[in-house]
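CORE FACILITY INTAKE
Project code: CF-77B
Contact: R.S. (postdoc)
Sample description: multi-component assembly, three entities in total
Requested service: structural model of the whole complex
Turnaround: standard
Below are the sequence entries exactly as provided by the requester. Do not edit them.
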Amino acid sequence: MMDFFAANKDMLLFTGAAGVKLLAFLGAVMGFTALMTLAERKVSALMQDRIGPNRASVFGFAFNGLFQPIADAIKMILKEDFVPGRAEKLLFTLAPFFALIPILALFAVIPFGDYVMVFGYRVNLQIADLPLGLFFVLAISGLAIYGVFLGGWASKNNFALLGAMRGAAQMISYEVVLGLTLVGLMMCYGSASLQDMVRAQGRLLFGFIPAWGVVCQPFAFVLFLVAATAENKRTPFDLVEGESEIIGYFLEYSSMRFAAFMFAEFLEIVLISMLLATLFFGGWQVPYLYETGFIFPGGAQLPLNHYLVTAMQAGSFAAKTVFFSWFSLVVRWTLPRFRFDQMMGLCWKALLPLALLNILITGAVMTILGKL
Amino acid sequence: MISVKKVNNRPLNLLERIYLWEIARGISVTTRHFFVNLFFPKNILTVPYPEKTIPLPGNALFRTRHRLKIRSDGSPKCVACFMCQTACPARCIRIEAAEYAENTVEKYPAVFDIDLSRCVMCGMCVEACPEDAIAMDTGELPGGALARPGMKMTKETLLRNIPGTGDPSAKGAANRLADEYSGGLE
Amino acid sequence: MPTITIDGKSVEVEKGTTLLAAAQKLGVYIPRYCYHPKLSVSGNCRMCLVEVEKAPKLVTACSTEAAEGMIVRTASDKVKAARRDVLEYLLINHPLDCPICDQAGECGLQDYYMEYSLARSRFKMADKARRQKRRAVGPHLVLDNERCILCTRCVRFCSEVTRTSELEVMERADHSYIDLKEGKALDNGYSLNIADNCPVGAFTSRDFRFKQRVWFLKKTPTVCLGCATGCLMEAHHNENTIYRLMPSPNAETNTWLCDHGRLTYKAVRAGDRLTKGVIKNGLIDLEPALREAGARIDEARGAVAVLGSPWLSVEDNAALARLAKDSVKTENYCFDFASEPGIKDGILINKDPAPNTSGTGLVKTAHGGLSLEELSRRIAAGQIKVVLAEARAAGLLKDTLKAAAPLLVIFAANKGEIPAGTYATLPYASYFETPGTFVNYQGLRRRTAPPVEAPEGVKPLWAVVNKLAAYSGASLQLDSAEDALKGIVFK
C-alpha cells in the first residue's frame, strides 16, 4: 500500500491539489452566482429607487433579502417538472445540461492566483493550466449554443424554436468577433495560456504603467465587452429570451430545468467577468506587487510575506470579477434591447471589420516596435 | 382624413452614432442612482408597503378603501338594494339582505362583503348607491395582505368609522323612512 | 265584424273586441295597469288612453269596444301627453321605496316611467300622502298601502277568480286604500297570484321577500308537479338556487299558479335533502348503499316486488319496469294507479295529488304488471320479501307494508319522505335538477327542464336504477333517460 503511495506520489499530490482547487474555486463561483441572482434584483431596485426583495426570512430574520436565493431555489424545486406532450423527451432533458456543463468546464482554465507554497510544494492557483487555454475557452463556449438550440427545438413549440434560431444566429455571429478580438491579445503576449497571459501583464510599460490588456489593446477591450455581452445573451442583446415580449427558447421549461438555464446565464456573467479581468485587467495582478512584495517605480520597496502576497492577488482577482459582474448588471438595467437586424448589423458590419482592423494595427505596431 | 404630422428629428451627430458615449452617459445616470441609494437608503422614495404607507395628499381625489356610512343611531345607511352589486364590474360585492322587525327602513344588509382582491377600485358602487351609503374616502390604499382572508372586507370592517368623515349625509332615496325612524335627526 | 284602423293599420275584429285587444292583435302595445286579460275590465288607471277620431275626449282602450270605421291613434302627441300626465298623477304619492322594494326591476311604474315619462317630479317629497307601510296580510303576502296605485286588480282577482272576496277598496276618492274586509284573512290557496298581478310593489311575496333582486334571476320554463293538473310555470333561479316559481299562462291549463305549487321548490334545497344513501338509519355513500340494496334484492330473487310511482316521470317509471322485468326478472311489479282526475276547486287544484298518474298508465300499457290490489294481496300474504318503491308511492300501501313488514328499499329525495321501517334508502335527483316527462290529467305530455344542478353525487332515478340493476341482476345498460323510454307509446 505504502509502495503505491510512494510510487505515485506526484500523481496523487496533483490529483489531490486539483480536487481541492476544484471544490474551493467552483464552490466560491457557485455561491457567488447564487448571490448574483439576488444582486440582479437588488441592483436593479437601487438603480430605480426601489428596495428590492426583502421578504424572504428565516425565523423572522430577513437580512434585507439575503435568503431570497434560497427561497427561489426551494420554489424552483417544488414547481411541477413539466414536459410538453409533443416534446422530444431525451433532448428536452439534455438541453439544460448542454447549457450548464460547458460553462462550468470553462472555469477550469481561469487563473485565480499565481501559486502558493503548501508544505514545500508549489501549487498553481489554476485548476488546469492548458497551453492553449484561450482556444479551449472559445471551443467550449461554442458548445453552449447546443443548449440553446436543443432546448428550443426539443420543446416543439414555434415560439421556442424561433427564439432558439435567433439565439443560434446571434451566438455564432458574435463568436467570430470574440475570437478575432483575442487574436490581438495573443499577438501581444505571445501565448494562448491564460496563466502566461496574466503573468505577462505583470510587466511595466515605460517603467510605470502595468502592461494590462486594456492598456495594450483598448480597442479589443471594447469589442470584447460588446461581443461577450452578446454571447451571454444579456441586455441589450437579450432578444434570444426577450422574456417580456418575444419569448425565448426556454418557453416550455419549468422547475429545475428552467433554473438550470437561468443559472447557466448567471454563471456566464461570472465567467465573462473573470475573462475580462484575466485578459484585460491583469487577472490576479496587483500593480507593482511582485512575489517578494511591492516594488514601486522609483525604487521604493515593501517586502511582504508570500501568503499575504498570494491572498492579495486572489483578492484582487475576486474584486475585479465582482466589479465586472456588477457592471454587467448595470448595463443590463440601463440599455434598451436592440432590434434583431440592428444586432446582426452591428456584428457583421461594425464589430467584425473593427476586429480585423485591430489585428492589422496590432501587427503593424508590433512590427514597427520590433524594428526600432 | 387623418392628419399627418411630420417630425423632423435632428440627425445624429458622430458621437451619438458611435453610441458608446451615449451608453456611458446612460450608465453614469443609473450608477449615480445606484450609489446614492446604496449609501443613503433612507432617501429611497419607495416604502415597504403595507408596513409603511405614504400619507395621501389631503385634497387628492383618490378612490381609496370603501366604507359603509352609518346613521346617527349607528345602523348602516345601506338598505341592501343591491345596486352596487349590480353595477360592480368585478363582481366583488356580496350582499345578503335582511328585514328589520320594527325599523321603518325595513331592509338592511345582514352580510356585506367586498372582496378587495377582486375589486378594481372603479368607484361604480359609489356612483350606483341611491342611499349615499358607500364611499371610497377612507384614505387607505387596500391590498398587501399575506392571505386571502385579509383581503375580504365584511360589514363590520366596512362600518369602521373614520373620524371626521363619519357625518351621515342627508342624501338618499329612502331617507324619509330613516328620518321617520330616527325622529328627524338626520 | 267591424273594421277599425289603429295607427294607420286596419284590422277586422269580432264584435265586442276592445281597442286594447285589437291593438294587441296588430302588435301595437298600449300601456296598462288595471287591465288584465283574465279579469274584468275596470278602466280606472287611465294609462291606456288612446285618441279616437271624432271622439271628443281620449278614451280608455281597455274598455272601449271597437266599432266600424273607428280611426285610433296610440302614439299621437295628445296620447303621449296624456300618458305623461297619468304617470305624474300616479307617482305624486308613490314613495321612493325602490331600493327596498322587491318589485323594483319588474315594476310597472319604473318601466312606464322610463318609456313614457322621464319627467321630474314637481311635488315635494314631504308632501306625499302617508299610508300604512308594510304589514303581513295572510300567510304569503305583504301589503304596503303607500305604494298602491289603486288599480284594483287584487280586489277583482279575489272576487272573480277565487271568489273569496277578502279585499276591498276602503273609503272614497283620495282617501281610498286597499284593505282586508273585516274578519277576513288573505289565506285562499291562490294568494301569491296577487303579488304577481300587482303592477307595483304594494303586494309582495313574503316567501321571496328580500331574497334576491329580480334582475339577477334567470328563467327556466318547467312544469309544476304539485298535482295532476300539470301547470306550466317558470322557475326563477340564480347561482344554482331556485328563488321562486311563477306561472307561465297558457291556454291549455293555467293562467295562475296555486300557493302549494309555488312552494314545491323548497324541497330542493331543504335541510333534509338526501345526498347520500341511507342503510337503516346511517348515511353512507351511494355506491355502497347500492351494493347493499342490490345484494338484498339478489338474495330474495323471485320474492321481490317493484312498485312504480305516479310522482316519478315516465322515464323513471319505465326504468323501474325494466329493472323488474329484465334485471330482477320478477312478475311482482305494479304500475297501476287508479285516480279520479278533475279540478277540485274549479280553478287549478286537482283531485289527484300525484302529477303522473296518466304517465304510469302508459308504462303499464307497455310493460304490463299486476294491479295495486293484487300486489297488496301478495305482500299481505307474505309472498314478497323485498319491496322496491318510491317513498310517496310506498305510502299508498302503508298499512299492508306495516303489517307484512317486507324489507323496504325506498327511493327518496328528502329524508322526511322515508316511511318508517325502511331498510335502505337511495337518493335521486328531483325534477328541478333533471328533465323528466309527465302526462297530466288531460293527457298532455309535458317535460320539466332543470333550472339547477343536483347536489354532488346525486343522480337521476333512472341512473340509480341502472346501477342498482348491475348489483341486483342483469345489467340494463341505460345510457340516457331516452333509453328507458323504449317501448312506451305516447298518445
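Facility notes:
- Residues 288 and 296 of chain A are 6 Å apart (CA to CA).
- The beta strands of chain A are 115-118, 121-124, 204-205, 209-210, 289-290, 293-295, 301-303.
Invoice: internal transfer
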